[in-house]
Write a structure and sequence with these properties.
Blueprint lengths: L2 H44 L6 E4 L8 E4 L5 H15 L2 E7 L5 E9 L4 E8 L1
Parallel strand pairs: 2-5
Antiparallel strand pairs: 1-2, 3-4, 4-5
């Protein structure tokens, strides 16, 4: 085996180790996300919060946990969004306007204990 072959083999092994490390990092994010979701689900009954759709991201580039207020008409979705924002102390982000004229309400809160951002959205 030549020196170049050994270097190439070492480079490939390093890339594989880095990829595995990234996968494990994302797994740990998802585990923390599940812990946060468990806590949030218990708050629904305890605080009389509306049921929302929760999404756990598989991509490290996406927000790990997103709540979508998607039940009922636009007014009900807006109220649900505002209730969750108040309950979590979420910071409102600029609204997004769709090409069909609808509005997406957005907010974000950081779970400092679990080091995890949580997004809230509602299309109204």
């Amino acid at each position: 085996m030549t020196w170049d072959d050994r270097l190439e083999q070492a480079r490939i092994m390093h890339e594989q180790e880095e990829a595995r490390k990234a996968e494990l990092d994302q797994l740990h994010v998802q585990q923390r996300t599940m812990e946060a979701l468990r806590d949030l689900l218990s708050r629904i009954e305890n605080e009389d919060l509306p049921v929302v759709t929760w999404t756990i991201a598989s991509s490290p580039s996406a927000t790990p946990l997103t709540a979508v207020c998607d039940i009922g008409d636009a007014d009900k979705r807006r109220r649900g969004f505002e209730e969750w924002c108040d309950a979590l102390g979420a910071t409102r982000l600029p609204d997004e306007v769709s090409s069909q004229g609808g509005t997406r309400l957005r907010a974000r809160v950081m779970d400092n204990y679990l080091d995890l951002p949580i997004d809230l959205i509602a299309d109204v």
